[in-house]
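Moderator note: this is an archived Q&A kept for reference. The question asked for a predicted structure of one protein chain; the sequence and the answer are reproduced below.
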Amino acid sequence: PILFTGRRTAELTKYAANAFLATKITFINEIADLCEKVGADVQEVARGIGLDNRIGEKFLHAGPGYGGSCFPKDTLALMKTAQDNDSPVRIVEAVVQVNDQRKRAMGRKAIQALGGDVRNKKVALLGLTFKPNTDDMRDAPSIAIAQTLIDGGAHVSAYDPEGMELAKEIMPTVEMADSGYAAAQDADAVVIVTEWDAFRALDLKKLSQVMKGNVLVDLRNIYNPAEVAQTGLIYSSIGRS
């Protein structure tokens, strides 16, 4: 349907829509953290609340935080508009803050999976763009994740089907590889950052063979923990104990 309305209402509608979706993402990410603490499964929680048609199932996939061109820009624009008009949007302000913190927290999650120390260790990132099927690196979680690992003393390699040319300019100290397996060569840990189809179909036995270590951190909950365990990999995911 087409809604005819005033210019100010139209602009605010666009900002409010993206801010609301960003809020759903950030909400389920925080619920995922709680799930890990209490032994719940965030995917089942999301499925359960999504059955309520007042909530819906979309944008309830826990992960490393939102990025891209729309959500970061529009949440900040809504905040600035609200501040300029002395009508602050505290919920959106919290969403922006929590999402920014989450990206680095995912880097720390990878460090924790390696025993809390990545100094002189190699960590491979699979996926760099903020979502699959794009080369868009704007506000991609991989940027903060890579920097957190580098700050911890790790050597970071990476592979992305589309985003490496742009990523080279943003993260020059990250070694870009020709494939996911090449990135994982001699790695102590592999971190799945973006849910490209290529990473959904990894040969996990082959992956474990080319790696030096055996830690797989899945920030998109692509794999079944029981199936990964059969390959000998130590598996860490989001919101699943």
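Archived answer notes: The chain has two domains: 7-103, 104-236.
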